[in-house]
């Protein structure tokens, strides 16, 4: 990332890769209930969801969490956490950890890169990450959408069983279901999130508003979270609906988006916006702050080990 002090030793690609995955897992542990609430709000209105939920209605992010805890128990807000952590180790490690390396590759090794190069690097690592981690995302979303009510048959009982069941029932394509809308979403998310974080942090340091420390990382991450939510929310809703849908409900992601538009109107694309922002804003803050600190700790440990060798 930008803004390293001249005296700092730049983190190696390996350090960034491991730091990004670990920081993303830490962020998921804190914000997973918000993500689950977002998924529930996004699928509300679907026929299958209405039939399963019967008289249960979700209203607002905290109302959704409260309803889930009341009707399904406190563990329900962490449905899909195992798949979520698997996803972050595969996903964030690539999309965030490799961002600087890809950015330098596109800029032919130059330290400063233009906005266009940064957007291209963000889109590239976002698309790469989805290509690898898509099965974990499919399982995570389906677990989050799954109701754990008495009398309602659970779609999946365990993470590994879910992978096997999806492969058995829907084939390899089922595990990579929604890859195109997810690549689109994450190219947008990654480019917006990382480029915005880069630019905000760079501006703060350029005008000496803050030093390269926790407050700077906090404000940069919060601003990046808001911008990303505004840009990516419509694609995110379509992605969630399509990945959670049973076989044959939608012909494609485009058909899913068109069905939403014709049956529920344009506001359907911003369903769950508040939980999306709360989740993405808080996730960004925890992840980027953890990422920056983990990079420094790992580099300090590496230097210490090299010094004693």
Strand content: under 5%
User: Helices and strands, in N-to-C order?
Assistant: HHHHHHHHHHHH
Oligomer: single chain
Radius of gyration: 20 Å
Distance between the termini: 29 Å
3D shape: globular
Number of strands: 0
Mean pLDDT: 87
Describe the structure.
The chain has helices at residues 13-43, 47-53, 61-72, 81-95, 99-106, 115-145, 159-170, 172-175, 179-206, 214-244, 253-264, 273-308. It has 309 residues and is mainly alpha-helical. It is globular and about 60 Å long. The protein has twelve helices and no strands. It is 73% helix and 0% strand. α1 (13-43) packs antiparallel against α12. It starts with 12 loop residues before the first helix and ends with a helix.
Secondary-structure blueprint:
Elements: H1 13-43, H2 47-53, H3 61-72, H4 81-95, H5 99-106, H6 115-145, H7 159-170, H8 172-175, H9 179-206, H10 214-244, H11 253-264, H12 273-308
Helix pairs in contact: 1-3, 1-4, 1-12, 4-6, 5-6, 6-9, 9-10, 10-11, 10-12
Defining traits:
mainly alpha, disordered N terminus, 12 helices, 309 residues, 0% strand
Please sum up the structure shown.
By secondary structure, the protein is mainly α.
């Amino acid at each position: 990332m930008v803004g390293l002090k001249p005296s700092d030793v730049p983190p190696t690609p390996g350090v960034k890769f491991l730091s990004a995955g670990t920081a993303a897992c830490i962020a998921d542990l804190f914000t997973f209930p918000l993500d689950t609430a977002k998924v529930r709000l996004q699928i509300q209105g679907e026929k299958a969801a209405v039939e399963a939920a019967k008289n249960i209605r979700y209203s607002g992010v905290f109302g959704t969490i409260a309803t889930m805890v009341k009707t399904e128990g406190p563990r329900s807000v962490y449905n899909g956490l195992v798949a979520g952590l698997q996803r972050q180790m595969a996903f964030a490690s690539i999309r965030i950890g490799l961002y600087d390396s890809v950015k330098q590759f596109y800029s032919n090794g130059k330290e400063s890169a233009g906005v266009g190069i940064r957007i291209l690097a963000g889109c590239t690592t976002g698309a790469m990450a989805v290509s690898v981690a898509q099965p974990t995302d499919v399982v995570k979303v389906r677990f989050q959408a799954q109701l754990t009510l008495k009398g309602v048959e659970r779609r999946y009982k365990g993470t590994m069983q879910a992978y096997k069941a999806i492969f058995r029932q829907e084939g390899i394509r089922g595990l990579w279901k929604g890859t195109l809308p997810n690549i689109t979403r994450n190219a947008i998310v990654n480019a917006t999130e990382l480029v915005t974080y880069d630019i905000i942090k760079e501006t703060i340091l350029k005008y000496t508003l803050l030093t390269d420390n926790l407050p700077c990382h906090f404000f940069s991450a919060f601003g990046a979270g808001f911008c990303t939510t505004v840009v990516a929310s419509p694609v995110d809703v379509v992605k969630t609906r399509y990945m959670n849908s049973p076989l044959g409900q939608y012909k494609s992601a485009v058909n899913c988006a068109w069905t939403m538009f014709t049956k529920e109107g344009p506001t359907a694309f911003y369903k769950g916006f508040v939980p999306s922002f709360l989740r993405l804003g808080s996730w960004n803050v925890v992840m980027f702050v953890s990422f920056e600190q983990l990079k420094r700790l790992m580099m300090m440990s590496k230097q210490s080990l090299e010094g004693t060798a």
